[in-house]
Amino acid sequence: MTVLVQLDNLTLGYQRHPAVHHIAGAFGAGSLTAIVGPNGAGKSTLLKGIMGLLKPLQGGVTLCGLPRQAIAYLPQQAEIDRSFPISVLDTVLLGHWRQVGAFRAMSPAMRDEAHAALAAVGLSGFENRPIGTLSSGQFQRVLFARTLLQDARLILLDEPFTAIDARTTADLLKVVHRWHGELRTVVAVLHDIEQVRAHFPDTLLLAREVVAWDSTAEALSPANLRRARAMAEAWDDDAMVCARGAA
Ligand SMILES: Nc1ncnc2c1ncn2[C@@H]1O[C@H](COP(=O)(O)OP(=O)(O)OP(=O)(O)O)[C@@H](O)[C@H]1O
């Protein structure tokens, strides 16, 4: 396996209060991995750490030959403000932002790519709609279209299918498989275990620390799922220091 992202004894948290501890392992180039775990397990925190939005309290993240601009990150929909008056097409065109910068105009080829991306997610004809008027499923399609334009080598998706209808989920899973086929590396936080078993070859089972990081069949064994549940029941949200101390 060629390593794309290496996590070394990674501890992340907020106001020095650890949320995930001592994560060690690697995402291989071209891998398709689900991150699964109970509520509050630190799944979103881990994505933010990989993205560089959170500074490690301990340990580190190494991007192997991967510039940060080559990472696409889709946060949970709840974290995105949709009241901004911007059209579907302009939202998708933001995917070109890193190539274009603040002042250069979009080329006709870039616009064509945006139209093609909207067609790929089933949203042709929606170009001029303000994003605030879309359903959650339609808006998630827009965000996937924008990600298609970004040409990212690592794609981080935080609960991309939560509160999204079944048809949209099926369509967007096809986009995920397209990325995997293009040898991009995809990491998605997911809650639907059956969906993970059906579509994601690898799984990181997280409960504030790694329970298992393996092929999905191994990682989601009944014993590992029981362990993750038991660990969640034992969490002490008021604990101020890492029980294992500095490694
Ligand atoms: N901005 C923040 N400030 C302080 N604590 C936070 C912040 N964001 C998350 N936490 C805490 O960090 C821990 C891990 O949260 P995180 O959102 O990463 O979990 P998760 O596994 O993604 O949960 P869920 O499945 O419920 O979305 C939780 O105890 C949470 O309350």
Describe this structure in words.
This protein is α/β, with parallel strands linked by helices and 247 residues long. Helix content is 35%, strand content 24%. The strands form 2 sheets. The protein has a 6-stranded mixed sheet with strand order 5-6-7-3-8-9, with helices on both faces. Strands 2-1-4 form a 3-stranded antiparallel sheet, covered by helices on one side. The longest helix is centred in the last third of the chain and has 16 residues, at 166-181. Adenosine-5'-triphosphate (ATP) binds next to helix 1. Pfam families: ABC_tran. GO terms for molecular function: ATP binding; ATP hydrolysis activity. InterPro entries: AAA+_ATPase, ABC_transporter-like_ATP-bd, ABC_transporter-like_CS, Metal_Ion_Import_ABC, P-loop_NTPase. Belongs to the ABC transporter superfamily.
